[in-house]
Amino acid sequence: MNNLHLATIAIMAANILASLKGFNNHTFFERYKFGVGAIQAGQKDRMVTSGFLHVDLSHLFFNMFTLYFFADVVIDWFGPGKFIILYFISLVAGSLLALYFHKNEPYYSAVGASGAVTGILYSAILLEPGMRLGIMFIPIPLPAYVLGILYLFYSIYGMKTRLGNIGHTAHFGGAIGGYVVTLFFKPDLLVTDTLMVLLLALPIVLLFVLGKMGKI
């Protein structure tokens, strides 16, 4: 693994500083978290600022730990500028999907960099689908694309059942953002890795089919 790039350090620092401020200042936290009612009332900045706040240290650590592992893959392919663009588009995509699915729930709220980080993760998987990743309870590392697809299917299940206190919708939206921007930056993947592009699109297509059918 390469040393942390300055772009990754800057994003991590912004998350850490904003989260620490939120831990110690309830008014700050409440003003900048994702809140459907507040966003619909005009506070659109929450769609970005909420991505730099976290509930607690473990929430913050998990997101930054995941970013640490996959940021270099994206930076190695695209450079720091496009990495930052991809990060922020994924963040906003996560917020937009959450706003769409929860538009009739004015009290729905969320925080965390998970949407943006999932976008980086999904981009890295699309760029390096042969990476092998290990997760808890599975002793043998699996191909990255398998885990990526399974994770999004799990997110659909989480959205449908409201599983846990987790922003599954933002995770999924971030993955869509990472997927689309990666293909925009590197459209030749549509030719060189057509099967992988199609496989990683399956859960995205399923989500919108289920949404159209009113199943989510």
UniProtKB/TrEMBL annotation:
<dbReference type="InterPro" id="IPR050925">
    <property type="entry name" value="Rhomboid_protease_S54"/>
</dbReference>
<feature type="transmembrane region" description="Helical">
    <location>
        <begin position="52"/>
        <end position="71"/>
    </location>
</feature>
<feature type="transmembrane region" description="Helical">
    <location>
        <begin position="83"/>
        <end position="101"/>
    </location>
</feature>
<feature type="transmembrane region" description="Helical">
    <location>
        <begin position="108"/>
        <end position="127"/>
    </location>
</feature>
<keyword id="KW-1133">Transmembrane helix</keyword>
<feature type="transmembrane region" description="Helical">
    <location>
        <begin position="133"/>
        <end position="154"/>
    </location>
</feature>
<feature type="transmembrane region" description="Helical">
    <location>
        <begin position="166"/>
        <end position="185"/>
    </location>
</feature>
<keyword id="KW-0812">Transmembrane</keyword>
<dbReference type="Pfam" id="PF01694">
    <property type="entry name" value="Rhomboid"/>
</dbReference>
<keyword id="KW-0472">Membrane</keyword>
<dbReference type="GO" id="GO:0004252">
    <property type="term" value="F:serine-type endopeptidase activity"/>
</dbReference>
<feature type="domain" description="Peptidase S54 rhomboid">
    <location>
        <begin position="43"/>
        <end position="184"/>
    </location>
</feature>
<keyword id="KW-0378">Hydrolase</keyword>
<dbReference type="InterPro" id="IPR035952">
    <property type="entry name" value="Rhomboid-like_sf"/>
</dbReference>
<protein>
    <submittedName>
        <fullName>Rhomboid family protein</fullName>
    </submittedName>
</protein>
<dbReference type="GO" id="GO:0016020">
    <property type="term" value="C:membrane"/>
</dbReference>
<feature type="transmembrane region" description="Helical">
    <location>
        <begin position="191"/>
        <end position="210"/>
    </location>
</feature>
<comment type="similarity">
    <text>Belongs to the peptidase S54 family.</text>
</comment>
<feature type="transmembrane region" description="Helical">
    <location>
        <begin position="6"/>
        <end position="23"/>
    </location>
</feature>
<dbReference type="InterPro" id="IPR022764">
    <property type="entry name" value="Peptidase_S54_rhomboid_dom"/>
</dbReference>
